[in-house]
Amino acid sequence: MIDPKMLLMFFTTSLLLALSPGPDNLFVMTQAAQQGRKAGLLVTLGLCTGLLFHTAAVTLGLAALFKASAVAFTLLKFAGAGYLLYLAWLSFRAGTLTGSTAVADRLGYATLYRRGIIMNISNPKVSIFFLAFLPQFADPAKGSLSIQILLLGGVFIIATIIVFGAISVLAGIFGEKFRESEFAQKVLNRAAAGIFTGLALKLALAQR
Q: Is 93 exposed, middle or buried (0-12, 13-18, 19+ CB in 10 A)?
């Protein structure tokens, strides 16, 4: 089993990585500001479900395929970029809501959760990052590498939930005032469309 001190170091590193500006926490922040903190939390759960996929990919060797195969990497990244452009289009065309009606309620919990899953799984760079990052904290002398990788993936997910959950709450509070104004909602929707488009371009141009 992994040494507790090593596990603590890994958890601390994971927290810092989750805090670093990146596509996932920017995605969570945008969704929470645009649709409320509950939406951000649901997207966070979806993203973390995607991290289960990437952890399993490292354990089963699929991440090595994305690293070695240009075709697999390209297909997956363009699928993710296309989905982000679709979200950008939805945000650009989104109407405005006033009163107590929440956009998150209109979208539905399943839709928000699914957005997080697709956003995370369709980014092959996450699998490649896990392939490089997780084994650094595993030790063959401490037992099964597969079990250690799964444990490390679980700890990384816990760190992500803590950080992204805080981002969801803060962004939701910040965006609440904007959602009370139709004009501000339009500005927020256009800004979200711009952010999603930027994330799509960044993913489309990503290299292995």
A: exposed
